[in-house]
Specification:
The chain is mostly helical. The chain is built from 9 helices and 2 strands. 69% of the residues lie in helices and 3% in strands.
Length: 233
């Protein structure tokens, strides 16, 4: 890809790489070839390395000794720690949102749910950005920028892990119903219910993700197993 302008070049590269990581174009564990990427983008390696540094600080990339940068990957046993942090942050945020929400923020939450429901009714899987939009809207209603920043970093890592799976468990009917129920609890100012719904929702997402990761790991270890192509989010 060529034609990038020099103003904010590193920032543009950050967003390009972020999109490729979150959608699975660059799968978990894959190593970045700096020479190839710089050539394809028509840029020098300076802004590329700056972009890589930014994504390392966000946890989307990791430095591998003597090999450069690679996309974040985690073992099933690491997933519990991610969700433990995410639950602590998002349950607190759901409680805050129920106390602090403004009318326009409730409207936005409901509109995100409506868009997700319409997409679900078409029979297609929802893109990851609709799921993120709901959680971002909830963070906005909580009015806690520091919590929102940390939630965003953890959410990205979870999306990366999902992107490496050939079968997707996200955005199920249950998840969508959970979102709608949380939006209702926030709108009603029911902090206890909003936090409880978020806790149950994240526990379900964690269980489904772990089961899928473990199932695919067993399939890959089976004699003659062949990994199928990665589906779009």
């Amino acid at each position: 890809m060529t034609g990038l302008v020099h103003r904010g070049l590193a920032g543009q590269v950050v967003e390009m790489l972020r999109e490729q990581i979150l959608t699975g174009v660059l799968p978990p564990g894959s190593r970045l070839n700096e020479v190839e990427i710089a050539r394809d983008l028509g840029i020098s390696r300076g802004p590329l390395r700056e972009a890589i540094g930014q994504l390392v600080s966000e946890g989307l990339l990791v430095h591998v000794p003597n090999k450069g940068a690679a996309v974040f990957a985690a073992r099933p046993e690491d997933v519990a720690a991610l969700f433990e942090l995410r639950a602590a942050l998002e349950c607190a945020a759901a409680r805050m949102a129920a106390h602090r929400r403004r009318p326009q923020e409730v409207i936005r939450l409901r509109k995100v749910c409506e868009r997700s429901r319409k997409a679900r009714e078409t029979g297609r899987k929802l893109p990851y950005d609709l799921d993120l939009d709901f959680h971002r809207s909830l963070m906005d209603a909580a009015h806690s920028p520091r919590i929102a920043e940390q939630v965003w970093l953890v959410q990205q890592q979870v999306i990366v892990l999902r992107s490496g799976l050939t079968s997707r468990t996200t955005h199920t009917e249950t998840s969508l119903t959970d979102h709608e129920a949380m939006a209702g609890a926030v709108a009603e100012g029911d902090a206890d219910r909003a936090a409880s719904l978020m806790e149950a929702h994240l526990a379900l997402v964690e269980t489904e993700l772990l089961q899928t990761m473990q199932s695919e790991a067993r399939n890959e270890e089976a004699p003659g197993a062949q990994r199928t192509g990665r589906s779009a989010p």
